[in-house]
Structure formats: structure tokens, C-alpha cells
Design goal:
twelve-stranded mixed β-sheet; 25 strands; 40% strand
């Protein structure tokens, strides 16, 4: 599923300019409350630019200055009432290679808003932009009520400089037919996309490495400082640790799901850990029966040698599992596309015992693809924890 088509996004819609609220032109800035990767920290600001195109259409793009996703340029444009896409996340509602017809429809414009959907009923996908004076609200829903992206932008300028239309837009370079893209080759593909020069580079960051006994560590989200550690012991053993800051020992639960179909949770093999107010360590093997809803206990995956600890304000959950267990066995080196997906979440406690239904995680959840044997194929280097 596409995880960043609205983080690192360039959108080109060649529609009649009279249908586009011209007061939206200008520069905007905002920090998302909800993204496929979880909420972002306050310095992860998306400068959002909206300009007219010389052919009568318009373009929207960001210019991220924080380390959200490197090289995640996404581009959308509309020709003959069909919306096309170019970018490194090319498996977007389609098995075709780029450019892809994604069938988004311009459903409604008013003096203060614009809406696109996947169908006239807007039951599966909706993208709303609403402006009130110098505030712009952007909300993307996938299979409502799942929030894919939610941002409040504040106006920075009224710049309406016309951007020259790129006549080569329909010639988006497709990725290799093998559907095998490393992070580096994906960045090279992005450079072939029209208007890719509007995307800025990301800044590096040093992420401390708290658990030094694991071979790998990546920080999946900066807002909740969610770290994923693991050691792979072939042919079948995976040792995992996940951690996040917590104000109190029992104030937080932390979880990870293997093999999800994001944004849904159903069929995921979930490991969830927390400490009760009485000090009991709870390690629960769970699964989600519904697309959206609380997980239930399951025996699909055996979680062995589990430990939940709280040290120096950090809640850590460690366990071991077999690669070949559960509803979604973990491949050691999966194909790059579609890859092997995980979901993560952090929720508030306390939870009274090891059988109670977990509290809802709200927007502190996210999605990633993972390669447990060769993580450098799917993770940007700035996400790597540093042993200090």
C-alpha cells in the first residue's frame, strides 16, 4: 500500500483553472497530526506550495526540510479526466508500472474547498482541502474513518507565480519490470519524474542506540521515538525489541504487527507488551479480526523469552519468534515490491491485567516495509540508530 504519496508529494492536476479556488495559491507550512508513519515532531514541517501551471492547470508540492522520508517524491497529474502518478511508490491501487492511472475524480469545488475521491460516493478514498482565511486544512481518508494524512497549514505567502508546464509529463519513466527497487535506485527513478527539482534533501540526524546487544536498530517514528531492534539468526529465529519513552512504568503499551495490509490491521500477527500498575509484565500474542478494531489474543505466533522493562523513562519490550510462524510468515529477504509490511503502535495505559482489551492508539501508529536480513534495501540511512 502506498505509504508516502502525501508525504513528499508533488501533485499536478491539469483541470480547468476556473474550478480551482485561486486564493489557495501561495506558500503554506504545517506539521501533520496523522500520517502513514505516525505523527511527526514539531520541527518536521511540510512547506506546502500551490501554484498555477502555464497550461491552465495547477501544481501542489512540498519541500520538506526535516528527515521524514528521503527521495519520496510523488507526482500526480490529470489528463483527459484521468489522474496519473509518477514516483518510487509505483504500486498504488494498481499492479501496473508507472505511470499509473489511479482514477481519482474531482468531485466538488466550492469557494472555500476542493475534494477528490476514488468514486462519486467517496466511500473508499477522499481528499479534502478547506481554507478559512489564512488556515488550510488538508485531510486524506482511506477506507473511512482511517486518517491517512491530517494537517493544518498556516499561510506564509500569497505567491502565485506561474510554473511552466512540462510537456514531457506523460513520459514518466517506469521502474524496472522486475519490480525490484532498492532505496538508492528509487531515488534515481524519482529524478526522472517531472517537477522533481522541487523536492529538497533531508537532513541527517544521530539517533542514540540504547540496546547494544541487537544487530540492527532503526527509529521508525520521531514523534514517539519508536525504535525497532532485531537480530536475525538463520534459518528461523528472529529476536526483536521495540521501545518508546513513557512518563511512568505503566503509562504506555507498545506493539508491532507483522504482515499487515495497511491501513487495515486485519490478519496481522501482533506482539503487544506493557507493565500493569501492580508490576506484572504482559507479553501478548494477538491478531486483528477486523479491518479497524481492537486486536484479540491469539496462538498463531509463540513469543518466547519475552521481557517488558522500564529504565530511565524508556519502555522496552523484547521477545523472540520464529520466521515461519503465524498468519504472515516473515521472509528473510522479501521482494522489494510489494515487500513485507509491519505496523507499529503506541497506546496509553494503564492496562489492569494481561487479558484486558488494549486502549485505542489514536494516531500514534504507522506502517513500514522491512527486510530483516538486508535492512539497507528498505530503510534510509538516517533512520539508522547510532551506537554511542
Amino acid at each position: 500500500m502506498f505509504i508516502t504519496a502525501f508525504i513528499g508529494l508533488v501533485l499536478i492536476l491539469c483541470v480547468n483553472s476556473q474550478t480551482w479556488p485561486k486564493y489557495l495559491y501561495g506558500d503554506w507550512e504545517g506539521t501533520p497530526r496523522a500520517t502513514p508513519l505516525g505523527p511527526l515532531v514539531s520541527d518536521q514541517v511540510i512547506p506546502w506550495k500551490i501554484r498555477p501551471l502555464s497550461n491552465g492547470g495547477f501544481i501542489m508540492w512540498d519541500n520538506m526540510t526535516s528527515n521524514i522520508i528521503t527521495g519520496s517524491s510523488q507526482q500526480f497529474w490529470q489528463l483527459s479526466n484521468t489522474l496519473f502518478y509518477c514516483g518510487w511508490l509505483y504500486n498504488f491501487f494498481s499492479s501496473e508500472v508507472a505511470p499509473i492511472k489511479v482514477f481519482f475524480q474531482l468531485v466538488q469545488t466550492t469557494p472555500t474547498s476542493i475534494r477528490w475521491c476514488d468514486s462519486p460516493s467517496c466511500n473508499g478514498f477522499s481528499w479534502d482541502i478547506t481554507v478559512m482565511e489564512d488556515t488550510l486544512e488538508l485531510l486524506v481518508l482511506l477506507s473511512p474513518p482511517v486518517q491517512h494524512l491530517s494537517v493544518t497549514f498556516k499561510r506564509v505567502s500569497y505567491d502565485s507565480t506561474v510554473i511552466p508546464y512540462n510537456s514531457s509529463v506523460p513520459d514518466c519513466i517506469p521502474p524496472p519490470s522486475s519490480h525490484s527497487l532498492s532505496v538508492n535506485s528509487a531515488k534515481q527513478l524519482v529524478k526522472k519524474c517531472p517537477y522533481s527539482e522541487f523536492i529538497s534533501k533531508q537532513k541527517p540526524e544521530i539517533i542514540p542506540y540504547h540496546l547494544k546487544d541487537y544487530e540492527h536498530c532503526y527509529q521508525l517514528n520521531d514523534f514517539v521515538e519508536y525504535k525497532l531492534y532485531w537480530t536475525l539468526t538463520l534459518p528461523n529465529k528472529l529476536s526483536v525489541a521495540i521501545s518508546t519513552p513513557s512518563s511512568l512504568e505503566s503509562a504506555t503499551w507498545i506493539g508491532i504487527g507483522f504482515g499487515s495490509a495497511f491501513p487495515g490491521m486485519n490478519t496481522s500477527d501482533i506482539a503487544l507488551g506493557y507493565i500493569t500498575p501492580t508490576g506484572t509484565q504482559c507479553s501478548r500474542s494477538m491478531t486483528a479480526l477486523e479491518y479497524v478494531g481492537a486486536p484479540v489474543d491469539s496462538s498463531n505466533v509463540v513469543l518466547s523469552n519475552a521481557v517488558v522493562s522500564y529504565t530511565d523513562g524508556i519502555l522496552t519490550y523484547e521477545f523472540e519468534r520464529n520466521l515461519d510462524s503465524g498468519l504472515n510468515p516473515i521472509p528473510s529477504d522479501p521482494p522489494q515490491q510489494p515487500g513485507y509490511s509491519i505496523i507499529w503502535a503506541v497506546g496509553t495505559g494503564p492496562l489492569s491485567d494481561c487479558t484486558v482489551t488494549p486502549t485505542y492508539h489514536m494516531n500514534t501508529r504507522g506502517y513500514r516495509t522491512i527486510n530483516v536480513q538486508y535492512p539497507e534495501k528498505v530503510f534510509d540511512s538516517y533512520r539508522l540508530c547510532k551506537k554511542i
